[in-house]
Structures are given as structure tokens and as C-alpha cells.
Amino acid sequence: MKIKSQKDFFAGLMFLGVGAAFAWGATTYNVGSGARMGPGYFPLLLGILLALIGAVITFKATTVETPDGERIGQWAWRPLFFILAANFAFGILLEGLPSLGIPALGLIAGIYALTFISSLAGSEFNARAVFVLATVLAIGSYVTFVWMLKLQFRVWPSFITA
């Protein structure tokens, strides 16, 4: 077997692995039937579908010729670092880290931090555009999760609401 597109081959393997893991994890829940779906039904079907898509992409990567073999480039360390850091910061700001004495600052502060930190992953940074995006995301998240879905979690820091 000769790999004719490295990018597609490894992307297909990733989809195949993640889909298989989700499908396998969904079997720990009650799957039910099409008429009476259990909590594992939808994740099982999505996992199987993702695994099938991954298998098709992997197969295509070994059969369809590409001009240069679509080699995988070097790791993009900067975007990887900032995207992961943004997600960690969001989680820490949302709920805090009591063991380290970091208080929970809530949803709004978490979204602003997430947006500003993740925007550093790109090659360009426009503070005004990032601020507008963070504001739209914060308002949209507040309306969606707090007003409409009525989820119970900290929105503002405790020193503001207390």
C-alpha cells in the first residue's frame, strides 16, 4: 500500500480513531432502538458515521494520486500553544482553581480571555476587531446559555455580584 496523500491519510486515521472511540464509549449507555432511543443512540450513530467518513478518506488517500503527495508540514507550534492556552484560561476563569487560590471570574471574563488569547494564534492581531468579537460572543453566550437554556453557572465575578 502506497500513501498518495499524507494529509488525507492521517486525517482519515484521526477521524476513524475518534469516531471509533465515541462509538465504543456510547455503548456504555443504553442505546435503545430507533423508536425508543436511549442516551447512547445518537453518540453511537455519530461515532459510526465519523469512523466511516474516516475510512473513506483513508482509502481515498491510498488510491487517488496527488501532484506532490501532499506531505505533512511542520507542526504549527504557535497556534497550537495559544489555542490550548485559551481553552485552559477559559476553564480556569469560568470556575477558578481553589487549590491555587484562583477565584472564579465567570462566563463573561472567560469568554473575553478565550477570545483575546486565541486571537494571538494568528499572524495578525486587531484589538478592536477582537474586542467586538468577544463582546458579541459574550452577549450571545449569555443569552443562549443563561436566559434561554437557564444553565446555572457563574456569569460574573463574585466581587461584582456579592
Automatic annotation (TrEMBL):
Keywords for this protein: Membrane, Transmembrane, Transmembrane helix
InterPro entries for the chain: DUF1468
Domain DUF1468, chain residue ranges per copy: 10-153
Pfam families, per the entry: TctB
Keyword Signal on entry: no
Residue ranges crossing the lipid bilayer per the database entry: 41-63, 75-94, 100-122, 129-149
Transmembrane listed as a keyword: yes
Protein name: Tripartite tricarboxylate transporter TctB family protein
Taxonomic placement: Bacteria, Pseudomonadati, Pseudomonadota, Betaproteobacteria, Burkholderiales
